[in-house]
Fold HTH tetR-type domain-containing protein.
Amino acid sequence: MSSQHTEKRTAILEAAVELFADRGLHGAPTVAIAERAGVGVGTIYRYFKDKDDLIDQLHQDLQERARHHIAAGYDAERPISERFKFLFSRMLDFLLANPREFKFMELHYYSSRGLAERTPSTEEEEPIRTLLAEARHLQIFKDAPLDVLEAIAFGPLVALAKSHSHRGLPLDEESRKLTVQAAWDALKSNPE
């Protein structure tokens, strides 16, 4: 892939994530995306079959970026509590550092496209699901379906990230640690 090809594709994806985050998936026509990217509308169709393909590829790219960020430096041999705090701290860092990407990913997750595309993940792709399943199996976490455990764990992180990006809530390291700890506490099968 040539550098010009990569640059144009990247410009289109960056413009798309900005517009989707600002206007929603249906409120950002390809004409607006092309204009924001500084390319002609036809150029979009050289890289993407249609708008749905653009949305899908953007989502895949962002999922991959998030996975790499969250798992970088992860040690599956550490105790469960340390692994949990590591992964969820990394996830919170990603959400806070990438508010537009986070907003797009959330829009996609709750869209009909996102619901239709969900497939079971492999362990290598999803250390979070693997960790939640392991902690549930060891009765450290509540005996609930993985989707429920994820919702309980992600809830505090998502709420904090939204408050930060939408309302300007100032955050310090202590607030981040308290939020991750709250997620851990909510999952425990025997809260102290």
